[in-house]
Amino acid sequence: MFSEEYRAANDRIKADPALLSQIKQKAGESEKRKPVRPAVLRLTYAAASVALAAVLAVAVLVPALQHKSGPLLGDAETPVPAAPVKTAQTYDDIYSAVMEIYAGRQNDMDGGIFFAEDEVATNAAVDFAVPEAAPEMRQEWKSAAQEIPAADGEIPKEADGAAEGEYSETNAQVAGVDEGDIVKTDGKYIYILRMSCLTIVDPQTMTELCTVPAKINTTEMYIRGDRVVLVGEALQSEVYTDPRTAICVFDVSDRTAPKRLTELSQSGWGAQTRMVGDWLYTVSSYYEYNEPKAETPETFVPTLACGDDLRPMEAGDVCLTEGADSVSYVVVTAFNVADGADFASQRALLGNSSAIYADTDNLIVAGAKTTQDTVSGSDADGAFVRTESVTTTTLTLFSLREGEIGNVASGEVAGTPLNQFSMDEYDGHYRIVTTDDRSTRTIHTDGIDRYDFESVQTSGVYVLDGGLNLVGSLDGLAEDERVYSVRFDGDIAYFVTFRQTDPLFAVDLSDPAAPKIVSELKLPGFSSYLHPYGDGLLLGIGQSADEEGRVQGMKLSMFDVSDPLNVTETQTMKLDYTYSEALYNHRAVLISPERELIGIPVNTEDGREGFAVFTYAEEGFSQLAFIETQSDVWKMRLGLRGLYIGDTLYVCTSGGVTAWSMPDYQQTGSLTLSEIRDEDMKLFVVN
Amino acid sequence: MNEQSQRMNSTAARGYAPPDVDEAYRLYADMVYRIAVLRTRSASDAEDVTQEVFLRYIRRKPELANEEHCRAWFIRVTLNCTNSLLGSLWRARSVPEEELEKLGMTADEPEYEVYSAVLSLPEAYRTVVHLHYYEDLRVSDIARLLRLRENTVKSRLLRARAMLRERLKEDYDVQ
């Protein structure tokens, strides 16, 4: 058996016990002495701000509901706009920049940390998009946006006549910007991604129309009329296992026999995508693994492929970001799914992407960066070396115009965003909520070796203009707590931080230069997803906790936000479920305020999986159904999702589909899908 | 109780005291080292990573709620430390046999074939295989540790199994 042999092999691999004494030696006497305080902390700005932030947080948390950022925290806290984005002229420019990064690279492994470590119990993939455009375009977008009903998860249907609310769409962040998922419907058919295969189901007859292999490790898909676009992971070749993101387009005009049309790929994995109209925008992250050779651009520049034709990106498409500290690229491409044969435009950026945000005209890529500053000095205890670590987020704004990716601006804010919901565009301003992690490590080297380590976490809201210059900020909030969820709703930013209790902050951004906290509601537990729910309500999906912050299980909360000055929790419902994908992936949520419907995939304490359906009315939440799905660890049902077409709810997994009448939830149909064959799981290789 | 005193009491109230470094090393060093070997494919890099992980444990004194949290902390920090190594070196793509020998494995042993097949998988695949098959983590936990969507973890795992089945041919039943 594979698993037994693998276990046996690993059991033989053991850490050398002698390492421990070396570790202790390195750590020195740190355990025995207490950290040095004020005299030392004054030496550098970051250390000083740590102390100030600590004082400030106490002040904020008690009654001071209004506090302007700035003076208290001093200049050190104010993010400086990054240098303008420079585009390479030639491959030589890029080669020099890459070699410079390798030469300057710190060997200290701390340099690679983008996430705080005590965050292990919190959120996963950080996902972030950027909006931007010329002001006049933004005006148009805004007026269009005003006609879009409240953000309730429904993207307005195209003008081809489908009645609104007839079928559900993937729960996306921004109206008019589609997000990929593993199960989708166009109101007539259900499309399910299973491993590398696309399966189309006719819900009328509950039959499987086809299952076609895509030969990529599919992660998400989009449906546009008779086109299905699959996005996934692939490898460059069997030998060169460089990660690639592949895009395949199928013509499904015959739903029983999809035809593969196009196959594109770009360097990097971790793709985040959005679709605006027929334009697919794909953002991948790529670590350059190759040894750079000046005469071979593909060893230091990301590549694109169309069919068998693999080519390095043009030098002019590569932005050389100042201060990049590793040879990693963010690759952004545009592709027209209706009639495109190849990428229409592309950009690469030296840097990394932890989240993207997109509206219809702009894309923001946020990349986290840890900066370390080392100073040496001496105090009463002798000579020391002090290293300060600060995390910042570099924001790059690309304009999106009919597939033309323009490069607009860059900026920087303190801290790191949680996910795509941490960012937003409204009224010409970009807003971002971050958690700021700072740490100071002091090593005394005279006589007794000693380590002192201090760290502080705070949260902040930053408002930037169309050029990503900082306009206003409110920081130093919620010391030692992390941001668990964020949702912007017009002028107000709502966000939840958590350690023991759940403060739901409402921040008024109507004056971009002076964000202010207007409400702070404390509850046990936390919400990890917030969704504006009809007029004046905000739904929270999260976990409850006891007074000590121990997580107790799931909960749904409804907040009354009709008066931003006085946000209250109107209803809460504790759920018996232990886990839901909805806690970490908003696309798993089925939500429709008009239908008074909230559906999430859930796991029960005794190991069952299913789709739970709730409704909310003034008297509170009530559960309408728990639809169990077959759960099989080894077969690993992929992608439990619920969707509706008309008055039928369909619960889909990679194993099958069941149909349920709404609102009484009687089963009306069931379909077991064909098995995926081993040979269809083979790795897709680009060339 | 005010915020401040609540916070100070929280560790005691939770009834979990994170282990001292000797105990932590006894509990987690092998786990850390195994993950590091798997990720870096180098015994000496894995030793460096192990040192760094425990140094961080000593220096940062992470606040941990329970044993499970403590274990997750060690896994997460090991992944962090190996991440920066993966990014900083251009590595040979073939499985370095001498590295396996350094780990005390020789080609005529039955485990050797399985372990080197896993090592030959692309990094993203071998990490999920290890966390699932050796550390017995659930897909949802792996997704959170690696900051991936669950579906991506599942499909990587399934695909890794398909690759292993092919590499190991009929000799092993990769389930």
Order of helices and strands of chain B: HHHHHHHHH
- Oligomer kind: heterodimer
Low-confidence stretches of chain A: 29-83, 106-165
Q: Which percent range describes the beta-strand content of chain B?
A: under 5%
Annotation, overall tally of beta strands of chain A: 42
Q: How many strands, what sense, and barrel or not for the largest sheet of chain B?
A: none
Query: Beta-strand percentage of chain A?
Result: over 45%
Provide the low-confidence segments of chain B as ranges. 1-14, 87-93
Helix content of chain B: over 70%
Number of helices of chain A: 6
- Helix/strand structural class of chain B: mainly alpha
Write the layout of secondary structure elements.
The complex is a heterodimer of chains A (687) and B (175).
Chain A: H1 2-12, H2 18-27, H3 38-41, H4 45-61, E1 86-87, H5 91-104, E2 129-130, H6 135-147, E3 183-185, E4 190-194, E5 197-202, E6 207-213, E7 217-224, E8 227-235, E9 243-251, E10 259-267, E11 269-276, E12 279-287, E13 303-306, E14 309-312, E15 318-320, E16 328-336, E17 345-350, E18 355-358, E19 362-379, E20 382-401, E21 404-414, E22 416-417, E23 423-426, E24 429-444, E25 450-464, E26 470-477, E27 482-489, E28 492-498, E29 501-508, E30 516-524, E31 526-532, E32 537-545, E33 551-560, E34 568-575, E35 590-592, E36 597-603, E37 609-617, E38 620-629, E39 641-645, E40 648-652, E41 656-661, E42 667-672
Parallel strand pairs in A: 2-18, 15-17
Antiparallel strand pairs in A: 1-15, 3-4, 4-5, 5-6, 7-8, 8-9, 9-10, 10-13, 11-12, 12-16, 13-14, 16-17, 18-19, 19-20, 20-21, 20-24, 22-24, 23-24, 24-25, 25-26, 27-28, 28-29, 29-30, 31-32, 32-33, 33-34, 35-36, 36-37, 37-38, 39-40, 40-41, 41-42
Chain B: H1 3-14, H2 21-40, H3 43-60, H4 67-88, H5 97-102, H6 110-119, H7 123-134, H8 139-146, H9 150-168
